[in-house]
């Protein structure tokens, strides 16, 4: 898989970047010295890269990963502190929180955008994940982590009431009890516990991460793309309590008349019994 530099720690810090190999697009966070902290400029670029990957009809899987020892330390809270307190306008009235909307709200919308990506997504957690970036990982369809990594959600400790869609993802992915534990105690948990509570789908040694991601991506890419995208969308709607049964039924019936199904059935019928 492309997008895995040989010497990650030596890579210069940049905004995120995109590479595509065959059917797999990889978006990489690339501020290793800041533990891939995400700032407002990164959010803009990430939206652009997602749009580019989705516009490519050959892409069937999108991988999100980071450079260096950490996946991501979360959103840059120094920008949140300056934007969350509106100053007076020229008339003396308080300015609206438009800067805040460009920060924390923009980050929450980024996570929502990742969740809604057309193709299946894999978060390749190359190291620790903290704060809002835990939600960024949960917004992906699959999460593969490495031994020795940790996660922590310090929102309550920092006096931040986390945004609703992030709370929903925590509860829908991890369950209410685990979500309360992680949010209300700000506890740090290690890789094995992340696997146990369902934050990770798979845990591998660091040197095996690239291969594990490539294996999963290949299995996804081998499935019919239109059906895969439709099922993903319906599963997300179901988890959000927004599934339209009539639309789902129509999609099911349409799939039985699709070229995709006809071709797949032809291949299936030619398979030799095992």
Write structural notes for this entry.
It is globular and about 55 Å long. With 274 residues, the chain is α/β, with parallel strands linked by helices. Residues 84-100 have low confidence and may be disordered. It has eleven helices and ten strands. Strand 2 (24-29), helix 1 and strand 3 form a beta-alpha-beta unit.
Low-confidence stretches: 84-100
Structural class: alpha/beta
The overall pLDDT, averaged over residues, is 89
The biggest beta sheet, please?
Answer: 6 strands, mixed
User: Gap between N and C termini, in Å?
Assistant: 31 Å
- Shape, please? globular
Share of helical residues:
40-55%
The proportion of strand residues reads 15-25%
What is the CA-based Rg, rounded? 20 Å
Order of helices and strands: EEHEEHHEEHEEHHEHEHHHH
Q: What order do the strands of the largest sheet run in, or round the barrel if closed?
A: 1-2-3-5-7-10
Distinct helical segment count: 11
Could you tell me the number of beta strands? 10
């Amino acid at each position: 898989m492309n997008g895995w530099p040989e010497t990650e720690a030596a890579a210069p810090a940049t905004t995120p970047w995109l590479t595509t190999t065959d059917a797999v697009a990889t978006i990489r966070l690339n501020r290793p010295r800041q533990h891939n902290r995400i700032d407002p400029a990164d959010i803009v670029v990430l939206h652009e890269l997602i749009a580019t990957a989705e516009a490519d009809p050959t892409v069937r899987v999108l991988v999100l990963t980071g450079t260096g020892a950490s996946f991501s330390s979360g959103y840059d809270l120094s920008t949140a502190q300056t934007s969350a307190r509106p100053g007076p306008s020229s008339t003396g009235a308080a300015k609206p929180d438009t800067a805040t909307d460009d920060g924390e709200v923009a980050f929450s919308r980024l996570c929502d955008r990742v969740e809604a990506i057309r193709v299946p997504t894999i978060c390749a957690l190359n190291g620790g994940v903290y704060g809002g970036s835990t939600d960024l990982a949960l917004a992906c369809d699959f999460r593969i982590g490495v031994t020795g990594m940790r996660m922590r959600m310090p929102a309550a400790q920092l006096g931040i009431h986390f945004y609703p869609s992030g709370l929903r993802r925590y509860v829908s992915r991890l369950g209410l009890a685990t979500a309360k534990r992680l949010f209300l105690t700000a506890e740090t948990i290690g890789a094995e516990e992340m696997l146990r509570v369902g934050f990770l789908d798979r845990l591998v040694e660091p040197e095996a991460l690239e291969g594990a991601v490539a294996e999963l991506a290949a299995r996804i890419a081998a499935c019919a793309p239109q059906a895969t995208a439709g099922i993903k969308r319906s599963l997300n709607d179901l988890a959000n309590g927004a599934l339209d049964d009539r639309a789902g039924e129509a999609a099911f019936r349409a799939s039985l008349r699709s070229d995709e199904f006809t071709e797949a059935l032809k291949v299936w019928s030619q398979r030799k019994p095992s």
